[in-house]
Amino acid sequence: MKKTILGLTLALLFGTHSLLSQDNCSKYYPLEEGTTFQYTMYNKKGKTEGITDYRVTNVDNSGGETSATMAMKFTDKKGKEAFTSDYKYTCTGKGIKIDFNSLLPEAMTSQFKDMEYEITGTDIELPNDLSVGQTLDDANVTMAISMAGVNMNIEVNMINRKVEKRESVTTPAGTFDCYVLYNDTQSKTMGANQTFPSRLWLAEGVGMIKQETYKKDGALMNSMALTQFSK
After folding, report:
1. DSSP string, 120-185
2. CB 181 within 8 A of CB 164
3. Which pLDDT belongs to residue 83?
4. Please, how many CA atoms are within 13 Å of residue 143, restricted to the half-sphere of its CB?
């Protein structure tokens, strides 16, 4: 379950950064309250591991700033609702950004509810203007935990972000013209360090279409694909 939570967090939070449709927000994601997305998660053999449903629940335009809330529900392969979470997004004028606090979902932080902890990091940004060969800013989140004099850190870094190419991709939701974004995700927990390369297929007006995570040798670990979309 911990691997599933981390995988969903990295794939969907780094992929579905927002659903903002205003011209000064993001041209890659439509933002309308009630807009829904469904992603199916597959293992390396292509078997279904779970389904994640997203819904835009609130769009707020105030103080010269536009922000949005998206609700997420993950259902495991047995049809059981495993966890839910909410994500906050903000327009930057040149694109959108996601609050780094959202990188660690409630299903993870609830394990530490009886401990002292602090979350720090940098927001993830996705600009409106993408081009092949473009590099994107790194992002990270760190959770420092203290219990009975014992300190522990959980760190996730998203590095080497770049726009690799453009290509057409087909999922059960349709065929889309996409930019392919690459990044390495580093996770550091209790002395265990892991790095996972990944690719994200991003389509204008819809958002994340597909995402794949690999081992260091390039072998596929898991993937996600858009299977339903409605607005």
Report:
1. EEE-EEEES---TT-B---EEEEEEEEETTEEEEEEEEEEEEEEEEEEEEEETTEEEEEEEEEEEE
2. yes
3. 80
4. 23
CA atoms within 13 A on the CB side of 89: 31
Separate counts of helices (H) and strands (E) for the chain: 3, 13
CB 18 within 8 A of CB 126: yes
Question: What is the percent of the chain with per-residue pLDDT over 90, rounded to a whole number?
Answer: 41
- As a CATH number, domain 2-230 is 2.40.360.20
Distance from first CA to last CA of the chain, Å, rounded? 31
Q: How many degrees, rounded to 5, is the angle at CA 113 between CA 107 and CA 119? A: 75
Q: Model confidence at 173, in pLDDT bands (50, 70, 90)?
A: very high
Query: Residue ranges of the domains in the chain?
Result: 2-230
CA distance 203 to 166: 10
pLDDT digits (tens, 9 = 90+) for 109-119: 666 667 787 88
Distance set, CA 140 to CA 27, 40, 120, 130, 151 (Å): 24, 25, 8, 21, 19
